[in-house]
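Notes continue from the previous slide.

Worked example: a multi-chain complex. Inputs as given:
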Amino acid sequence: MSHQRPAFTVACEECGVDADLESANGIVDFYRRHHRLTGHDATITRVDLAFELPTDGDLETVVADLESRYDDGVPIGVVAAAMDEQGVSVGDTLAEIYDVRMTGALYEPRDDHLAAV
Ligand SMILES: [Zn+2]
């Protein structure tokens, strides 16, 4: 039986801890759990996807770019991974997602997945 490497690694640099995750939204779960316990932010240190992430553009542009890859919304963890490439932390990306959703430019077709309007 072959073992596939987990696709993502997320880390808290302050604590020196990291976690290998198979699903993109595991990044979001890690952040929420770690932030609740410690108040710390998180960064994504490894991304292993079958396609290249967009490396520029604001949040709406990144979601619009990635949307063609997914049938029912882009997992927030993948959006966070793309924003991390631009030096934006997971916490900052989640805060920005909240703000942009309030403007109505993005919506959640299902939990923790984003689509552009
Ligand atoms: Zn920490």
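Summary box: The chain has four helices and six strands. The pocket of zinc ion is lined by residues 12, 14-15, 34, 38, 40 (CB under 6 Å).
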